[in-house]
Batch of 4 targets.
Target 1
Amino acid sequence: MLFKIAIKNLLGARLRTFLNVLVTAFSFFLILFISAMYNGMLEHAKQVTMDTEIAGGAYWHPEYDPLDPMTFEDAHSALPGDVQSLVDQKKAFPVLVSQASIYPGGRIMPAIMKGIPPGQNIVNMPTDALSGHDDIAIPVLIGKGMASDTKLNVGDSFTIRWLDTDRTYDADEGIVVHIMDTENFKLDMSHIWIPLKKAQTMLAMEGEATYVTYEKGLPPVQDKGDWIPRDINYLVQDMEAIIAADKPGAQIMYMILLALAAMGIFNAQVLSIFRRGREIGTLMAIGMTRPRVVGLFTLEGGLNAVLAAVATLIFFGPVLWYFGVYGIPLPIDYTEMGMIVAKRLIPVYTIGLVVSTTILVSIIVLIVSYLPSRRIARMKPTDALRGKAVA
Amino acid sequence: MSNKNVVEIKNLLKQFPVGGDYFTALSDINVELEKAEFMGLVGPSGSGKTTLLNIIGGLDSPTEGNVNVLGIELGSSSHNQRAHLRKTKMGFIFQSYNLLPVYSVFENVELPLILNKIDKDERRSMVEQAVESVGLTDKMASRPNMLSGGECQRTAIARAIVHQPALVLADEPTANLDAENSHHIMKILVQLNQELSTSFIFATHDEKIMAYLRRIIHLDDGKITEDENISNPKAGD
């Protein structure tokens, strides 16, 4: 019986129902969209890291610690048997890492110099730009952020000084052959990329490397010497730690969005219910009990939430889909701020997000329908019939 | 309570708290209303007629005294019992109609039957009969905002009588209507009273209504000043 009346009330109220549903649907949309943007940002950061840096995993020289440049000096050796086999099969590529100093425009700047095979196609880096420059002493690939910091352009030359394996300083002229536009700041900031053979020659470390990155889907090798296997889980753990550390922030943001939505819905529901004081009085006069009045208005709220979910799908679904496919262009390049943020951010709608948002918004709508109707149903029917305002 | 009495009120006192004090709205009220009576509570504004009507309707509770309506002692009954009494045995007509604005005439009249869980086919027939009795068959699908004041009040009357209650309480039912509509409404109510033996209690100070009443209880300052039986009402029959 209540259901029939609630349906009649909702459908009969036309504009009022439409506005209530629209407010709720808009709240649905905002929460979904902003949370999905946030998810998209994190997902993108992880994906970019895997795409441009990690691939399927790596074998590290036992001395290598990417967070401690002092280890670079000793972190090099010939590749263990099976690791070398992977490289020979072009299923992996070696990287030789060393410290260097560069002198762009007469300034001195510390840099991490990495030798990488120009022909590799395991990670998404434009390393092929390093090939075919036999006339250049040291062809150098840098990122846009590094180019901006050093004020270097393609064709500019600068001095590179390094310490070779015999602990002898040497220097030569590097020329920027390409500036890459990467979203992974870890490949960009303070990095100069040169051909692996050149690096091995410069450092007197022929046939040696610091780490080897292999393609996705390869099983672990047997003969890896004392090199340490680092799988994807290990290599993304920093990223995941950042995401985990950011979780409370995300939860707070989600709560703020929910609170804003709740306020909007509450406002619409309270206005709607309190304006219907006389209607409530009339329902009581013709024999509806207080619990039924409360039930009726709460049910209307619940149906409101259901309609809002449908309205979100109809009105905002295409918008969510469009952004989900084409993303949203961001006006700022966050790479320079040391953040992996896409230039075109694509929201990620997870089932968990959609389900939890639907449940939470529905609960909020039920609560904000229940509370004011309970209060108004407590009024004396005679006051309600007069349309007396609730204090 | 006598079997033929629909309402029996003894020593009713009604007070409202005002600030730290009490305002006495009704005192020493003793009334008996028999089945099929057509009675009016008449008096100036503030005399307590609406308060008495609300108490009889179980919308308000007495401070002291006994109020027995259709066999239920209202003073000691629960909210749910009073709601049940209103739902099954009472009808209300309000000055400002109190129709639900989002419902059509049919749906407004149907509402008490839905509350009484009457099945759909029977509901339709009862609504059509009630709407026909107030002459609104052609307005069945109209919403209240498409109706005149008289039509709204006729809809409210249909809603009040659709479940064939034993008692209809009408609070200033013609206050918002012109003379022609007022007479039309009263003629309908007289007819219903005669056909269905429904008891009617009006709260009014409208002389047009008084001309139809067969019993008038005069109230002044919350007290009954006169209980007048009229054997030949000026209008109505």
Target 2
Amino acid sequence: MNVAANDNNGKDPIIRVENLAAGYGDEIVFTDVSFHVNRGEVLAILGRSGCGKTTLFKALIGLLEPKRGEVVIEGDKVLPVAEGGSQQIMRKIGVLFQSGALFSSMTVAENVALPFRQYTALPEKTIEHLVLLKLNEVGLAGYEQFLPAELSGGMQKRAALARAMALDPKILFFDEPSAGLDPVTSAGLDRTILKINETLGTTMVIITHELPSIFAIAHRIIMLDSDEKRIIAEGKPQELKAKSTDPRVRDFFNRAPAEEANRL
Amino acid sequence: MQRITEIVLKLRKRLASGTGNVPSAAGVRAPEFFLTLDHPADDEVQVSIAGEISMNSAGDVRTQLLRIVQPHGIRNLIIDLEKVEYFDSSGAAILTELGEMCREMGRSLELKNVPARIQSFMDLVDAQRLKTGAILEPTRPPNLLVQIGGGLLDVGRNGRDIITFIGATIIALAQDLAHPRKLKWDSLWNIVERSGSDAVPIVTILSFLMGAILAFQSAIQLRKFGANLFVADLVSLSICLEMGPLLTALIVAGRSGAAYAAQIGTMQVNEEVDALRVMAIDPIRYLVSPRVLAVACVTPCLTLVADLMGVLGGCLVAAFSLDLTPVAYFNQVNKVLEITDVTKGLAKSFVFGLEIATIGCLRGFQVRGGAESVGSATTSAVVTGIFILTVTDAVFAVLYYYFPVVWNM
């Protein structure tokens, strides 16, 4: 249960991405992306809008079949879910989608119970207790019987996080967790994410472009670019902000507009 | 140098006559602007604009300016903005358009005495870099050949999707039937209630009326031959063999087929289907299988209700306008209607139910995008459903006729 694996020296990689290229139809969004994620690390994937973050995210979890290259999670290759996916991998990961993607016809408790019912043969009573525990962890105790539509955006995200964490997965994937959240709720979510990472040692891959979150929780980042269609920066966020010589990276971390966008 | 103030006078008159201006009684001040024309040289025109160029007045300003630019022989157009009191984006748009026009006509446009705030506004808009082009006109559809080709490709792709989907559904159904204990019975009963018992009122009313209408219309002809009694034959056989199953299936397609397309389509848009997939839950097994099973079993039950109500409807009309007693009517029905007639209709209904649910769910999964896509998927579910239903009905008619073995089902 340690968290020290935040050094970029290849120590114990749990996710390995090799020469990945992906896109939609004829359009290639990025080519030749290679990186790894160490066990227990919080990796943030950044970039300006349109650089391919969501595409990379989908390729990592198997929602999109890459055009080239592969993603390997703990030695198993990630297969596209449309063809059944890889069962061993799906047990180990949890995914928090951008809008939560809670099943709107079921209560929050039933949403969180779904992974248990799907993967385990636990008795109903145990599942009930597990659901209560998970919802309490994310601060939603008391809201078990609510339908997703009856919750605020922040609460929906936390419920979705409880569902993603149900089976204590080794890796959690987040797609823009702070999107649409006010600063206070966003900070609360960051703190929850940090707590999970520290106590459970869960590896986390976060797509985001919220600078405060990145500096608060990311051990390491990789940055994609839509023009170059590859990774243009990799490393610790504070170091990149202070020492990077690439103007695109500096603009991003210092929240400065790019040259051609000076007018508005 | 001539000072032409005709324009000013014309404008004053137009403003006074109240064309397009809100009367001050409403508390809104009519926007005022004045254009003053000058001819510093023979081929030059200088327009001084004074007053307000806002969204309210911009239309009029533009008309006036365009009228000034039109005449031949003008080389340079100078616009003096010193006395402009109010200027917003509409002003910038007009000046940009004027600049383009002048460029096209080979004339020069110059802005003179531009106040600082207007200058910074024009900088903000960055008019120089705007691309021209008709951006608000609807895109013209491609030519006929492209449309035909695209249409054929769509049909091909559609066909392939349908076949893949049917295959996946059959596998899911087989898995569910092989492991009935793993079925979620709660959601199954819920679906049965929504697609079945909730539809009973409308099925009852529609088939009752259909039976009555059939009896009513045929009575007119049958009376000529004194064959009143045979209205019982006509109504009971048509309803049980054809009208009952088909009408019920149409109702189920409109109610349940559309609902499933909309539900699953919205789940697609909300990434709920992706979430299912990532949790290794087969969306077909989870969403489609229970719906197909439920509707396939429910539609024959509804058809039975429809058959009964249709025959009753015929009885009502027969009793009231054909001088038949209900007893005579039902005796005749008993004589002519065989159990196989009813079961043939029920067998058709079962197949109809399978088709409706499958097509509804298929269209739901084909949704990509937002509300527009969900809307067209819902429509398509009903239309495709009706089409397939009718084709199936025809196939069954042929089947029953040419294969007496099936007759004795």
Target 3
Amino acid sequence: MRVPPNVSAAAYAQALAEFAQAIGGEWVFTSDADLDLYRDAFSPFLNEPEERIASGALAPLSTEQVQQIVRIANKYRIPLYPISTGRNLGYGGSAPAYSGSVVLDLKRMNRILEVNEQHAFALVEPGVSYFDLYHHIQEHKLKVWIDCPDPGWGSVMGNALDRGGGYTTANYRNHFDSHCGMEIVLPNGELLRTGMGAIPNAQTWQQYKSGCGPWIDGIFSQSNYGIVTKMGFWLMPQPEAYQRCTVSVPRYKDLLPLVEILNFVENSRITSGFPDLESPLLGYPPVGQIQLWNETGPPKMSAEQLNLMKGTKLGYSPQIEAYGTRAGIPYWRLWLSFHGPEEVIQAQWRAAQRHFARIDGAKFAVVDQVKLPVAAQQATQYHEPELGVPSLRAFSIGARTPWNPTPSKGHMWFSPIIPRSGEAIIEANRVFSEAAKSLGMPLFTTFTLPACFWERAFIFILATPVTEDPKTNMHYREGFKKLIEIGGQHGWGEYRTAPVFQHAVMDVYSFNNHALQRFHATLKDAIDPNGILSAGRYDIWPRHLREKT
Amino acid sequence: MRARRIIGSLAAGVLLLGGAPLAVGADTLAPRYAPGRAVYEKWCAPCHDPGIIHPGTHALMTKYPGGSRASGAITAWTDLPVSYVTFMVRHGISVMPQFRKTEISDEELASLAAYLARNTPTR
């Protein structure tokens, strides 16, 4: 039997007996075979001694059972690591941050407590996936949309708590921002409700976010201060129509005004759907079409274009620009999407074109016009999440296809936040492509465009493969850490990362001698004095482990 | 538009490969396999239903061109023993992760494996 660190075998056996009494013996997992199911399937430490593993797993069915588990864990100082659906692949999966912890698997807590059509919100438990919530809404014919990330099996709550993003309109794409109200089991077993939920018999728990007094919801995301057992989310009323359009521009330098105008039209709500950047000339796909490229292959290019691409520097050469002009291939293309009444969409699109028209040679096209709702089957003609439909199609990334004969074992996302400007895109390409080249990291082809999930900043996402070869994985891990450090030197930091990189990432957030990290530690000691909860998550360690790390 | 062409050819591909969900043919399925099919539809279908828009199917089509596995759709395979299904669900392969017992219980896995192995002759 595996035993958690700093716990005697006898104390652990006693704790396990009490856990079994609280939740039923069949939901206490201790065998190697059962615990191997909690390994991070995309671990960059695959089959190495440093891979983070679980000493046990507990699967409660209710908030009361979570409270009981937490009280027992305090008594025996058992390190716990809560997961929701355990599908945070690329960011740690179902494995604990502190190896040897007991995973608290909340997948069985999968009740959709309410979907309110009139006030457009949902209240869910941790085990509810985007698929579950979508199917529930469809079955009950409710006229509301979810906003989902690419992996539809992810937890609605878990994704928000790890501050993930989606693809519909700006108000909903930031999943943490679109939450409203939480219920939390604190590390001492006490139950807390935030926002208006702190009022007994609250009438607006899911309608007003902050309640009164300090608004503490943020400290329960990317942290280890409590176990969230209920969480509310604002949903979008089902729009009448969806339209996807493109703005294509001919010259390299057009990237600067293209992004500048995008910011204006988006922040003015002239457009609010997911914007997406592409370079037809450099063969770089928009985020929402990566799955199509994996499925049907990259677009065909002439030998001349491919050859010219190789000769570009930071994606530029006068020759390729001239070729693009000659062949009618735009340097950049911005995809804009609109959701709403048809007549509003047309007016918005007209206004957007008026603004983009100040770029000389800008061309406009309407690619898709869809009357909503669409059935899930019809949505497969599009990037499903942009129509509020969950899917697993993005798992074509790294999977075997005719264009990828050597499938990976997963990937780790290097995802720094950079300013939302054309200059920053070029600068990030310069800094990271030079670094990746010197580190031998296979991250760049010619030029990389960022993802536009957030309205006020870009995520410069680079997928780093995980392989079956420990030597290669070690090389990529070390390179990944170096990239984090180099990003930090330029004032850029990750928005989210897997446990193996959380120390390196948080180390970048070091203003005033790590004042932020010291504050996190102060909170940790006050809220979780025995340090039982998710030790090490986002580099927040309990006192007894801080000195050791 | 190039993007239109991609989407157009994709839709055609789905049609050719039989994009309709398998459940449509439910009538012919022996009732004892219904629980296994329900597990398949919840956990496997998003990656393994027919057509290249399902990454598991596309990977298997690419891996096994020609022959009885060529469609890549595991629901149609005739050489998929129970032990193989059980192993894959609990171990995963490539970008497919393993599944925990809180997702697919041992009992559900047994019914899933029986469903997927229904066309496979037992030795």
Target 4
Amino acid sequence: MKIGMGAKVITLFLIAGLVPLAVIGVISNNSSSNALKQQAFNQLVSVRETKKKQIEDYFSTIRKQVRTFSENGMVVDAMKGFKTAFKDVRKQNDITDSKLEEYRTALKTYYTNDFTNEYKQQNNGQGPDAVSFFSQLDADSLALQYYYIKANHNQLGEKHNLDAADEVSSYSKLHAKYHPAIRDFLEQFGYYDIFLVDPDSGDIVYSVFKELDYTTSLKDGPYASSNFGEVFRDANNSNDRNYVKLVDFEPYAPSYDGAASFIASPIFDGSEKVGVLLFQMPIDKINAVMTSDSDWNNVGLGASGETYLIGHDLAMRSQSRFLIEDKEGYNALMKGLGTDHDVLDKINAKDSTILLQKVETKGTLAAVAGNTNVEIFNDYRDIPVLSAYTPVEIEDVDWVIMSEIDEEEALSAVTALRANMWKLAGGMLVLIVGIGYLVTRITGRVTTVIREIVERLTDSSTEITAASEQVSSSSQRLAEGSSEQASSLEETSSTMEEISTMTKQNSENAQEAAGIAQKCSDSAGQGNVAVSNMIHSIDKMNSTSMEIVDSMSSSMDDINKSSNEIAEITKVIDGIAFQTNLLALNAAVEAARAGEHGKGFAVVAEEVRNLAQRSASAAKDTAVLITNCVDKAGKGTELTNRSKETLQSLVEDVKKSTDNTNTSLQEIVGNIEKVTTLTKEISNASVEQSEGVTSVNDSVQQMDQVTQQNAATAEEVSSSSEEMTAQAQTLLDLIVDLESQIGGSRKDKLQDGRNNIKPGARKTSSSSHQFANSRKNGGHGKTQGIVPESVIPMGENRIIEHNEELSDF
Amino acid sequence: MEALAEKKITEQEGTYLAFILDNETYGIEILRVREIIGLMDVTTVPQTPEYMKGVINLRGKVIPVIDLRLKFSMQEKEHTDETCVIVVEVNNTSIGIIVDSVSEVLEITRGEIEESPHFGQDIDTSYIMGLGKVKEKIVILLDIEEILSSEELDMVNQHTVK
């Protein structure tokens, strides 16, 4: 099965890309997430530790403060003074029973209205047991509470602003004296309240904030059973002026059942215990510390981190961030988790999770058990958080500190990293796939290109093989050609010899020609003489023949004349004969007429006729003869005339021919001169020829060299072609391999191509060797043998001498 | 017919004067021949047939002359020295006949005469009495009377008389 290179490539790319990516991603993710986790943990731990230290320091500071404040001279004096003055307030203010009743009634309204309203507000409409509280007030409390709470024009919550009440007791003076300072102390250090308590009666003889607990007894008052009372009793029981006791938060009625914690330290005047100083713990301050003034973000708690204190009962001792930041969300969340509606209402009412929000998580349980750790578990919101917990070392309370940050946020970096990794992975995947695809395309193209190239290579290699064949055959031919060339050179050299011999001959011939020319001219001279002689003779002959002819013609004329005369005579005879014949005939006729008698006459007539006839015939014969004679004479004349004419024409002809001969002779002479010049030229040409022969010789030598080179080159070429063939073979093999690699169907073609590389290429070398051998044996020596001088005997300038002779002509 | 032929032959036997006309030898009965003369000047007579050459003065006697050649519709030949005029007598009228030449007097026997052959219906050979074989040559024997018909004779007479 041929898996396409594309698929392979993509797969490989994916693998190559993703596997390392995955590995790296996982590893780096793990390590970085671990590192981040670790860092988050570390950070959280550091926050926790910081917070722990902070809160511990704070509490320690408070402890120190309460201790030192309790040793403060002013406080001691204030304690002593208030303690004493407390008892005299009614007396000194002349508070009668009826007045007391007045005060009672008025104060009651405070309880039932002001306090209750406030309480209701902070307790979801649930009312306090105000009446009960009120009913437990003793007379001193009534009076003082009336003066400092009810008659205090300041609003509820502002009652501490009253320095001097509208009463005239020494208490008032003491109050006016010490209250501002203590108040200032409270304000500076943010305490909720500061109390001075009579150690014997347990009466809160002074408090800054005039709340319902003001002036009540912590021994048997309405609030004696609270944690306030407890801590008082503990401090009161101690004889150590440095004794400090903190009590854990508990809902405290006078604080509208809000969480209250107290710290106490006995006040000693020397060695005498004069009272107990108590602070109501500054919730706000604690919260501020724990929440870093609600600035969780900048202390490394991000958007979901918080540090809070948990008490032994697993309830919060400091505010929950989520309540502060997003009350509604918090509500919804808690509702969703099934938190008690009541509790939730209370939390909402008080705007505080302290003592209300139970945090029973893995962490809190572990921390409360005394463990210090950093873990991830679900917090009180059922949200996975990174939690660093540890018990806080605050004396007298068994608290733990929980630094928590939503796992999501803590590990947001990790998550982000992971998300980024995933994104990256996704991106890389896409990229890889894209690249893989591109690569596939490219490789596809490349493959196509490679295929094409392979095809072309195959073609080229086939062509190369063909070409190498051609080259080998060409080199063969070249070798053959070279050998032919060598043989041609031999031929050329032999031809050169021939040419040289010919040139020699040429010069010889030229010499001969010159000799002959000379003879010719002599003969021409002779000829001339003969011609003139001949002319003379002819003239003579002419005149003689002319004479003969003339005499002949005159004779002819004579003959003619005579003949004519004879003819005349003959004519006469003939006429006579005729007439005689006629007569004879007439006679015969008459004789016939005469019949018998005329017979003898007839015979005579007949005889006469015969005679007449005879003479007629004789005359005729004579005439004939004469005619013949005349004819012959005429012919003779004709002949003589003709011969005369002929002779004349002959003479003319002869004259013409003599002229011709003359001119011919002249021409001959001229030609001889030409011949002479030509012979000169021939000799020059022979010289040039010899030079030419020399140069041809040189050329032949050069050609010989070239032929040698050619042969050598042919050998080289043949060997190169052999190599080329081998290379082509190798190439074809490689191509086949490549092809098989890529996956092709061209093996057959390639095989053919391979098969085409025959061992025919080897022929060339043998032939070239042949040639080389022949070269060594044969023509090379000969071509050098021709020396121009031996060809043309330039030393003997016979031709030139001859020319000089000819010029005389 | 036979009798007529015999008669003719008998009549033909005799002596003839042979003359030559256009290389052919013709013969006329010698009895008919009056005279043979050489050619002399012929005085032409107008309005006469072609063959009527004219008249000649023979010792005071005016004789018409006919060119036998033309009579025989042969081509006229130029007169030579041998041209003769044979004066024949037909019905007491003398007419001269111009012939090429006169050769001899021949004695022709019966055996030597052949009947003139018939050349067909249209060809009139009445004027040939017969053919004589003399010395290997054939002599055409002319009946001079036939040759010169009476009309012509009359004409001739007219002319001669006038």
